[in-house]
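Let us work through a complete example step by step.
Step 1: write down the sequence.
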Amino acid sequence: MRIFAFLALFICVNTFAACPEWLDTSMRKLHSQETISFCEDYWGKPMLIVNTASHCGFTKQLKGLEEIHNKYKDKGLAVIGFASDDFWQGADTEAEAAEICYVNYGVTFTMIAQSSVRGKNANKIFTELAEHVGSPSWNFNKYLVKKDGDVTARFGSRTEPDSAKFTTAIESLLR
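Step 2: predict the structure and record it as tokens.
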């Protein structure tokens, strides 16, 4: 029995030790006191990371992102939205942003509280994404990250969540 406990601890410690530095951060969930530790919660999972805004012409993509979340969550995909007002289309309050996401669009995937996603004030996650595939050029840029932390692709705002090109990229990520 002790060997199994030791083995479980060894695997856990070595998994977190391998987590890339850029994921070694915690952020607060949207309209919540709960924080997310990216290494603990997402390391070892493929991720779809999206910068969102509540009052943008692309906000309707939240529905499609929720569909992706529901379709692929059992295959390990983590969908993570980052509320941002970098393009001046965010909600005035966090409560309003939460209502738009959770009530209007039925979002159940993780939404992170508002932060900057571009420029010198970009959060740690988006700083890394920008280094690999570029900063968001507008709201609803979609980034795909392999389970080992390698950033593989960025899709712009005009790429709908249900587009064949995007779906193919997600399915490739999950193989």
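Step 3: interpret the result. The mean pLDDT is 93.
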